[in-house]
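Homework help board

Subject: predicted structure for assignment chain

Our instructor gave us this sequence and asked us to write out the predicted structure in token form, then describe one feature. I got the tokens but I'm not sure how to describe them. Can anyone check?
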Amino acid sequence: MCLFGLVIIGKALTIQIVEGAELKKKVESLTLVDKSIEAVRGNIYASDGSLLATSIPIYEIRMDLNTEALTDEIFNAGIDSLSYQLSHLFKDRSPSSWKQELVRARAKGARYHLIKRNVRYTELKQMKTFAIMRRGRYKGGFLTIQKNKRELPFQVLAARTIGYEKDGVTPVGLEGAYSKELSGINGQRLMQKIAGGVWMPVGDENETEPLDGYDVYSTIDINIQDVAESALLKQLVKQQADHGCVVLMEVQTGNIKAIANLKRNANGNYYEGYNYAIGESTEPGSTFKLPALIAAIEDGYVDLDDIVDCGNGKLNLYDRTMYDSNYDEGGWGKISVKRVFEVSSNIGMAKIIRGAYSKNPQKFVDHLKSMSLAEPLGISIAGEGSPNIKNTDNNSWSGITLEWMAHGYEVLQTPLQILTYYNAVANNGKMVRPKFADKITKGRSIVREIETQVINPAICSKSTIDKVKQALEGVIENGTARNLGNANYKIAGKTGTAQIANESYGYKYESKVSHQASFVGYFPAEDPKYSCIVVVNAPSRNVYYGNLVAGPIFKEVADKVYANSLEIHKPLGPQKFLAASAIPYSKSGYGEDVKRVFQTMGVEMKTAAANPEWVTTSTQEKSVTLESRKVIENLVPNVKGMGVMDAVYLLENAGLKVRFVGRGAVKSQSIQAGTRAHKGSVIVLELT
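My token output:
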């Protein structure tokens, strides 16, 4: 027994004297660790300073119920008040329940007892006034651990573009693109591991304060973004489409002012689940006819006035047949190159490219690549889809590839890549990289401004740009997108309707074909400031043409931008004023109303007919002449010079649907007076 006791004493002395210092150091390394203090992530703002994403501080509250300064006297004097205050604030437990918990924790010697997680800042401010807790960390044992929760004040608005960055998840959107700037630098705090595996901070003097992240000002205009998402959602619901996207870009800077992406879920609701504008590479269809036409014109093979024989709307190519949209009406026959583009003739475009490049198809491919269509844009946001312009040595190249490429098949482009190309045309040939952020700031100081980058200084010559601009304007004036024309500003652009290919079953599934409708263009056409693309995928209401599905979304966004951008309005020219006259000017209209007004004012009237129902007024120096205006049943009436109310009354009685732009008297009408009125036809009135 004595020998056994001596062994124990010897071992204890060895541990204490020989190994003591090393073991003590090892224990400290296991129980004392520097842990990271999360820096507050920077904010993301819209272009006007509206907050798009911010970090909201969330607190975890604990108590050191065994701190030396917290005596039994102080604890017992304040425990009832503290229990009542906690119960009143959180409303989840009774005061007696809180008291029992705190008394029990103190009896166990708890140094890091959890009070509440996910406490808001306003709640924290109240807790700092509570009994015992108001004594602070060392005298009252009040401990706070701050965590940050990311919030989007506008919720789903531009959510996918704002994005997120999470551990173990691929960064998305602006949060991922500018993560380094937004993240800041974390601080450090010495923490000790205590009973139960809980880490408790050890003194403020051991802390290194974190440096908060920088703020990012995006290019997004929140008002236009709202209109874009609303217009897209409305059309997707109307057409019961699978998904769609809208992008609006500033022509000269490449600033993305709005980008909306919506997808339908299993319940039929739409949400921002994927950034289709950036990530989805598809066959673009007829919007690709622009680079094909530019290549042919630039290489000297065709001009806008050249004639192309589009035949009867069908073209057999080996085992495939190409169709024009009006093949059931006999096709387009012989038309100019400009007209081929305006009416979006697949056959016309195929014949242009075949005639130019059939002997050397690689020249066509090389020209497309020289216009920066084969490489990604290299945008700041991750997830860009890869374009594909295949070479002639590709295994999938066939005898009909050239003709199919001419109208947007057997090539791949994302919506943003197509938009960037059209934006280059609007920008007189200069292709700029789409930009999602303008500047990085720290408080009011600018850390870094994000400059516009040029991808290609000139995709083609200025003369070719001028020619295709005429063709793009012709699409709206005389072509497939006449429904987008308006009297306030001119639009230039191109419709696109493509069949969607699937890797498993090609273009058809159960005898059904799915389509992608698109429209891309810029405005105002004479001095472009903005470009925009709309793509709607798989509309299912048997309406799939770009002008009808994508066009209305483009128009709604463009109208909003035009209405709110005074700098793109046409300047007012010299104004003409009528010579001073004692007789007031009168619009034409309903005879009895006109006569009653002039009689009340004591104005002399001259009229050939006794009681004309509808009159045209003519003002002289001392009198007004009323001439009878005939309105014949089943014919479109002449409403020029009338006010809106009278004009609408007459036209709707004739069975027409009336739309009007401007204000004042009717200046012109889209259906000529005297022609037969077809019920349900739309007539557009332009007012002065």
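Reply (TA_rk): Your tokens look well-formed. For the description, you could write something like this. Residues 23 and 303 are 89 Å apart (CA to CA). That's the kind of observation they're looking for.
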